Amino acid sequence: MADTAPIISLPPDFRIAPQDGRLKHQSPKSPSKVTDPPLGVVEHFTGTFAGTGFNLIFRPNSGQTTFPVPVNPPAPTPPNENVLELNLTTETLSFSPALGNVPNRGLEQQTDIFLNGVPYVQAISDVSNIDTGKGDAKTASAIHFEPGLWMHVPETTIDPVLGESLTRMASIPHGTTINAQCLAPTTSFPGPPPFTGANALDKVDITPFVIGNIGQRVPFASQKVDAKDTARLPQDLTNFINAGTITQEILDNPNIVLANAIAGQKITNTIVFTVSTSPTVPFLAGGTANIDFLQGSSAGVQSGPNASAVEMFATFWIETVQFDIPVPIWKHGDPPLKKVQVPPASPTGQPGPLFALHPPHDITTPTTVTFQYTQIQYMQTVFLNFAGLTWPHVSCATLTPSKPIRVPASAFK
């Protein structure tokens, strides 16, 4: 993983604020006297998080992508007009400081509202090692870059009538922008997300379906991990199956990747929310926009999309993880202690955060201190349209603070 995380660099003390006073020759308020609008759940998005994950995408194949074992019929003849690409990933997700007072002006009876939010940058790299079947490739290869904004929108009672909400606005280099929304979460629940078990969340189905008819699924041979001659990269998954990193259970339900990553952790509390580009009641807006190449033409020698992103939805789990940190004998004058959390046994090799400890008193015998930190997990699906089908593009990750977490003196009492 890179030593430096991607980040949007803002000028010092950059804070958005209404300009009415300045433009009316009134003395602006001191920044210390200005109260920023609330961030809501976005307040948890601070600093830089890093971790590991999984990505899969069905992408078009005009015949330019080849395979170690040739596929029959050759691309782009169906069913080999696509490639199923699977990636073990590392990721950094960096948040900049809050923007401040972002004024949105109302009309007539609808008064002005003030948003607040944080810029972010997401960078994902492939670290798949086909020789080991693990995410331990010596060289990482970038596959995704995304700058964006998480914004908290206050409640409005006239136009529109809508409770406080969240919106994620983002752009990706392939040529798609998104505006995804949800009502602000108002509750949390004790314990971890129910990825498995009797009350498990619905499975994430990666099977393509006929455009406009999600009930008419069209499975492909590449979804079977034992197959070694399909339109898939990697084509032979034997080492990944043996390592437990890409299994049939995972392709049948990628939620298993997230379940594996938190196996053995003590998660005391979870906040969950799902943002979507498809407006459903009470929302009126949101959506995706694509460049011409992705959307394709409606007439000509060839018509239809090359890979049009028509919908995106993503669920985020903000988790409070409790961890017992072993503390060795230590006395004042010694360097501050640093202990890397030993992660639970997981085939994905999920890294733990680094803890920086500076006890307020000498430690005469080895002991432990209990501390909590924030962990982010997400599961995202993008629907891509091409060749008459809608193809799920699924990605997920488990992310923890990348910088050392300072354990306060109170933890040693």
Describe this structure in words.
The chain is 6% helix and 41% strand. The protein is mostly beta strands. The protein has a 16-stranded mixed beta sheet that branches. Strands 17-18-21 form a 3-stranded mixed beta sheet, with no helix packed on it.
Write the layout of secondary structure elements.
Elements: H1 20-23, E1 47-60, E2 82-95, E3 102-104, E4 113-126, E5 141-153, E6 156-157, E7 161-162, E8 165-172, E9 176-183, E10 189-190, E11 209-210, E12 213-217, E13 232-233, H2 238-243, H3 248-252, H4 255-261, E14 266-276, E15 287-290, H5 292-295, E16 308-327, E17 337-340, E18 354-357, E19 367-386, E20 389-401, E21 405-407
Parallel strand pairs: 2-13, 18-21
Antiparallel strand pairs: 1-2, 1-20, 2-4, 3-4, 4-5, 5-8, 6-7, 8-9, 9-15, 10-14, 11-12, 11-20, 14-16, 16-19, 17-18, 19-20
| Count of helix runs | 5
Q: What class would the helix/strand composition place it in? A: mainly beta
Please tally the β strands and state the result: 21
* Amino- and carboxy-terminal Cα gap: 35 Å
Profile the largest sheet.
Answer: 16 strands, mixed
How much strand content do the residues show? 35-45%
Task: Average the pLDDT over all residues and give the rounded result.
Answer: 90
